[in-house]
Amino acid sequence: MSSSDIFDVLNIQQKSKSHGNSASPPPTVSASTTSKAPKPQVTGMQRELYNLLGENQPPIVIQPASKFKDKPTTTTKPSPWTNAGFKANDHLNLHHWVKGSKELIGEEAKESSYSKFNIHLRIPSFEEEDYKSFMSINNNSNEESTENAVSPSKNDNDDWEYQEVDYLFQLCRKYDLRWFVIHDRYNYGKSRTLEELKEKFYHVCQCYFVTKSPNDPLLPSLDFPKEKEIERKKYLQRLLARSAAEIAEEEALIVESRKFEMAAKKTLNERESLLRLLDSPNSDQSVSQYLTSQGMSQLYGSLLSDKSRKRKHESTVPENPWMKQQQLFALQRQQLQQMQDKKQETQDTNQLKKTKRQKQEMQAAIKRKAETVYAEHLLEHFSPDERKSLGVMVHGEKLTPGVYLRSSKISAFKPALQSKVVAMLQELGLSATPAMPTYDVIQRHEELLKRITTLVDLKKHLDKLDAEKAITK
């Protein structure tokens, strides 16, 4: 690279040499000096980064970025708002902002738009004379047991006066029969339960409407069963007071009941399929359509394609049952003879194919048996307590080489049976593996596991028999 190339890269003009030197070439003029057009000012990119591009056109279009949104252009004029008044109720006026001018809305307070939702229950009102009259009429009708009589309340207390009944009805009108609120606000000097308040209210309403319209079909709906309501609350309280163990037990019983239902449904389906197989064909239809050859071919095809009955195609020629039994006996005798011959052949081949290793194992077993007998002969003068204190025991089986833990020799079962055994041990307050796995503890633990597996198997058979018995009923 020459010095002129470096000057071109750095955009530096070379100084012209003396004109007297005619042999020197004329100075080269760079392209940047020839075209000195003013560069447009670009925003959105740093000046140093843009200068690095040179005369090349940038690969992307650079547009000026605005930091603020455009001013919204609206053609509609802002509407006025007025702080107008409205009637919250008969005794209270409030104000709120309403869209519109004051001339359009007016100065008079209007009803609130939510007043249509302010709906109250229509509870009857009566004077003291009316109350005494319809209550006396109802009592007389109960004594006479007329046709349109209403059953009297089971707990019709006589200590209810008109003033207390009127106070109760006023609370019912004020709180729209929200009984928990009514019972909380009730303060007449006498302690009343919620059931007593509801019973008295509905009883008075029933007597009132009997005098007004005795043939109304809705009158029985005003009968409030106080005893049933108390019993329902007690039951709900017991239900909510259950412990986690009781809830888990209930869920387990529900799962078991569903299993029994599925087993019963399966048994019923099998019984229906068996009855369908034993059922005779229906002969109610006419056979005239099968008299022709075409009808017979259709019947034959339909019988072949009918797989719902699962009938076996019986041969047209009846068989002799005695001959069939004789053939069966002969076949069984032949199979038994073949099995005996095969067994004899396998014994002969096994005797011939005994290897040296098998012979060594047999000799080791015979030697181990002899050593066991000799050890028992040596220890026959020791009592069990002495053997236990000395830690001496005789192993008849072959022991595994190396050191092992007694807990690793505890019997293991299948996962389904193992979970039941563990659950039974937890009910007995025992762990799956003993804390101190001594020899005696392991022996007792093995005996307990055998008894538990026997009990689980017996319970399984008992549940199956109970299910079959319930299905037959």
Would you write up a description of this structure?
The protein is mostly helical. It folds into six domains: 1-66, no CATH class; 81-117, no CATH class; 128-240, Orthogonal Bundle (Arc Repressor Mutant, subunit A), CATH 1.10.10.60; 243-271; 362-397; 414-473, no CATH class. Helices cover 53% and strands 4% of the residues. The chain is built from 16 helices and three strands. The chain has helices spanning 3-9, 31-34, 47-52, 102-105, 128-144, 162-175, 179-185, 194-212, 226-240, 244-278, 293-305, 321-352, 356-378, 384-390, 415-427, 439-472, and strands at residues 81-89, 92-99, 110-111. A hairpin with a 2-residue loop joins β1 and β2 (92-99). GO terms for molecular function: transcription corepressor activity.
Task: Annotate the secondary structure layout.
Elements: H1 3-9, H2 31-34, H3 47-52, E1 81-89, E2 92-99, H4 102-105, E3 110-111, H5 128-144, H6 162-175, H7 179-185, H8 194-212, H9 226-240, H10 244-278, H11 293-305, H12 321-352, H13 356-378, H14 384-390, H15 415-427, H16 439-472
Parallel strand pairs: 1-3
Antiparallel strand pairs: 1-2
In short:
By secondary structure, the chain is mainly alpha-helical.
Q: Could you report the average pLDDT, rounded to the nearest whole number?
A: 77
| β-strand amount | under 5%
Q: Provide the helix percentage.
A: 40-55%
Total of domains: 6
* The first-level CATH class name of the largest domain: Mainly Alpha
What low-confidence regions span 5 or more consecutive residues with pLDDT below 50? 17-25, 27-35, 146-157, 311-318
